[in-house]
Design brief:
Radius of gyration: 23 Å
Distance between the termini: 52 Å
Shape: elongated
Number of domains: 2
Strand content: 15-25%
Helix content: 25-40%
CATH architecture of the largest domain: Alpha-Beta Barrel
Largest sheet: 9 strands, mixed
CATH superfamily of the largest domain: Alanine racemase
Bound molecules: pyridoxal-5'-phosphate
CATH class of the largest domain: Alpha Beta
Number of strands: 19
Length: about 425
């Protein structure tokens, strides 16, 4: 991989036709160390599992492995095969609650996976049938907990209703001689640490009603990162809420506490350098978009932090709000923003979009023949950080000095919508 001091150096040294993922390996290592130090140094057994889906790039997996992470949450046979190819001794947990029968067989027989999630009795029956009633399965029941405080709620699709959960947990206990546990997901980008404690209280009620002594409580992912307009509480608050929630649960001293961070381990590591192919007023046509690394900018309307880089010459000090279009012919390939950039942005400039390490590169498709992303190492700091590598807050232009900023020009529309 090529290495540059910063994305601006890359812009100055060579123009790139495709979007470029600028990765900061150290940011992944720092986040991994925080999770390991916080959760693994307890008097009871704990595990930190990386949710591979957030970013399955080999450099990420290598960095996490080098930082000592050995447990991984995988969601498909391809993710399992990827892990087995590169890290044969990694412990894999197939945490997707609904799997195809062939995926269960491949995971169990071809790849030695023994830990499986399920969220209904039918899936438990599948697990038993496809593993020949194996008694060595670690079975984790995914609960549908109420998720308040998550920016991207994950309720609805997965999770057993709490009134059906005790029977499902008991069925799991009867189905295996190995461990059983409960898990949940409070929703991605969870802005409230108390959501974990509340979910753990719900899990506790299920456990009591079932009469099962669980071996594992898995609090899932949901740990946040920093984006414009979303400044989460410090990571320590999340750890405190979870450790206090675990303390409140009447589980045995051997019960393991698991967590499955995805976003929080990788989000801040990567920014993507995109090129402006055309400007029409406040619309910038970039060589990356919602079919590339910017899915959440379209579908969740997230405003990612941006910086303008120009190979030669100065850029305007005045900021203006822009919206982006991606390179495909689909008009849905639109990122409304607003993204604040120098007023004189022009064709050939590069827009660096930050905080795209999670669910960014991982979401890229080949639609319309686009989606080729180069990856380079950079040495500068992330645009923001939950771990002290950069400010833990991204200020929006209205919070800055009004004199250097041109006001956003669509307040009228906004007012009408609010009525
Ligand atoms: C089962 C499971 N665990 C962990 C994660 C990671 O979540 P996050 O990236 O919000 O930490 C996900 C994400 O969808 C998930 O489905």
């Amino acid at each position: 991989m090529h290495r540059y001091q910063s994305p601006l150096d890359l812009v100055r040294e060579r123009p790139s036709e495709h979007p470029v993922a600028c990765v900061r390996r150290g940011a992944v290592a720092t986040a991994a160390t925080w999770f390991r130090t916080t959760f693994e140094h307890q008097s009871f057994p704990t595990k930190v599992l990386y949710a591979v889906k957030a970013n399955p790039s080999l450099w990420v997996l290598e960095e996490l492995y080098a930082a000592g992470l050995r447990h991984f949450d995988v969601a498909s046979v391809d993710e399992i095969a990827l892990m087995r190819r590169h890290f044969p001794d990694a412990a894999l947990a197939f945490m997707h609650p609904i799997k195809s029968r062939s995926a269960i067989r491949a995971a169990y027989y071809d790849h030695g996976v023994r830990t499986f999630a399920f969220d209904c009795l039918e899936e438990l029956d599948k697990l038993k049938a496809e593993t020949g009633n194996a008694r060595d399965l670690t079975l984790i029941l995914r609960l549908a907990v109420s998720a308040t405080g998550a920016n991207l709620p994950l309720t609805g699709k997965f999770g057993v209703a709490l009134h059906e959960a005790p029977a499902a947990l008991l069925a799991a206990r009867h189905a295996t001689d190995a461990k059983v546990g409960v898990s949940f997901h409070v929703g991605s980008q969870c802005m409230r640490p108390t959501a974990y404690r509340a979910a753990m209280a719900q899990a506790q009620r299920v456990i009591v009603q079932s009469g099962v002594m669980v071996d594992i409580v898995d609090v899932g992912g949901g740990f946040p990162s920093v984006y414009p307009g979303m400044t989460p509480p410090p990571m320590e608050d999340y750890a405190q809420a979870i450790l206090a929630g675990f303390e409140d649960m009447s589980v045995s001293e051997h019960c393991e506490l698991w967590c499955e961070p995805g976003r929080a381990l990788v989000a801040e590591s990567t920014s993507v350098l995109t090129r402006v192919e055309m400007r029409k007023g406040d619309a910038l046509y970039l060589n990356d978009g919602s079919y590339g690394t910017l899915f959440d900018a379209t579908h969740a309307k997230w405003r990612f932090p941006v910086r303008l880089h120009r190979a030669t010459g100065d850029v305007s000090q005045t900021l203006k709000p822009f919206r982006f279009y991606g390179p495909t012919c689909d008009s849905m390939d639109h990122m409304p923003g607003p993204f604040w950039l120098p007023a004189d942005v022009q064709e050939g400039d590069y827009v660096e979009i930050g905080m795209l390490g999670a669910y960014g590169v991982a979401m890229t498709t080949r639609f319309n023949g686009y989606g080729s992303v180069e990856t380079v190492d950079v040495d500068d700091a992330p645009m923001s950080s939950m771990y002290g590598l950069a400010p833990a807050h991204i200020s929006l232009p209205r919070e800055r000095d009004e004199t250097t900023v041109v006001k956003f020009v669509r307040p009228k529309q906004k007012k009408r919508r609010r009525k």
